[in-house]
Amino acid sequence: MGTDRYAYASRLRRVEAVPKLWLTLGALILCISCGSAAVGLVTLALMGALTVGLGGQRAATLVRFLRLPLAFLAVGCLPIVFRPLPAGEGALWAAEVFGRFRWGVTAEYLRVGLTVFCKALGAVSAMYFLSLNPPMTDLTQALERLHVPKLLVELMELIYRFLFVFSDTARRIRVAQESRLGYQTAGRGLRSLGELASSLFLRAWRQADRSYTALESRGYTGALNTLPATRTPGRWLYGVLAAVAAVQILTWMAERSWLQ
Predict the structure, then answer these.
(1) Are 39 and 251 spatial neighbours (Cβ–Cβ below 8 Å)?
(2) What are the backbone dihedrals phi and psi of residue 200, each rounded to the nearest 5 degrees, phi first?
(3) What are the C-alpha distances in Å from 184 to residues 86, 127, 189, 190, 193?
């Protein structure tokens, strides 16, 4: 759970989470709604620069966090680019599958796949700005101030807490399996993985039940109350939001004029 560690070390740690939330949402909505590969790349660059410049995160840290969604997006966009071709349609590259079906890549398929890939990268970059700057406790308090239903906020807090429960339980089981040479061969490793998955839920359930009992013994009545900390308003982030939105819109307009 490295994002929380970086969030607590961020330069924006003492800034109110509400402006950071609006900055992320504004960049995210424009990136998705414009439907432009150029806007997606610009959003990726802008939000990455803000994460490094304002948040004080290392560029290598951001790149490391981007690697997993980058691979996922590449695999996810492959079916968009490589698809069945209607009879007689031209293609940049095509191949016969089982001697009956014609699959290939057209210029339109490539354009759509590239657009989806760049938009998703821009959206991920915007979400990482939110993940690597305000800690989770600040974010839930900001959602409460924005009048998000309290039940939803509390569910978010509990789910977030039990992510650590699942992670710690899985780590302990795997360490025990490795100490008994449970992953020495592929077959043994597959069997150990199945045993881990089957026992993880039961152990995590028991731990969750003990945690709930501990909450009730400390006076839990259905509300998780957290004392608010002193934060700077951070209204200057709304100016950053306006600048980011202006660059995104100008990029979208420039791309449309260039394509026409």
Answers:
(1) yes
(2) -60, -45
(3) 49, 38, 7, 10, 12
Q: What is the pLDDT of residue 146?
A: 86
Question: Parallel, antiparallel, or unpaired: how do β-strands 93-97 and 101-105 relate?
Answer: antiparallel
pLDDT band at 149 (very low <50, low <70, confident <90, very high): confident
Q: Are 130 and 22 in contact (CB under 8 A)?
A: no
Question: Which ranges of the chain does DSSP label H, i.e. alpha helix?
Answer: 2-8, 17-34, 37-53, 59-81, 107-131, 136-145, 150-179, 186-217, 236-259
pLDDT greater than 80 at residue 131: yes
Residue 220 has pLDDT above 80, yes or no: no
Q: Which helix (H) or strand (E) segment is 103 a member of?
A: strand 101-105
Q: Which residues contact residue 86 at a Cβ distance below 8 angstroms, ignoring those fewer than 6 apart?
A: none
Q: What is the DSSP string of 72-94?
A: HHHHHHHHHHSEE--TT---SEE
Distance CA 132, CA 106 (A): 38
Distance between CA 29 and CA 33 in Å, rounded? 6
| Residue whose C-alpha is closest to residue 31's, from 42, 45, 15 | 42
Q: What angle do CA 254, 259, 260 make, to 5 degrees?
A: 100
**In the prediction, which pLDDT does 123 show?**
92
Give the C-alpha separation, 135 to 111, whole Å: 37
* Predicted model pTM: 0.78
Would you state the pLDDT for residue 260? 65
Q: What is the mean pLDDT of the chain?
A: 83
DSSP 230: P
Look up tokens 């100016």; give the residue: 239
Percent of the chain with pLDDT over 90: 22
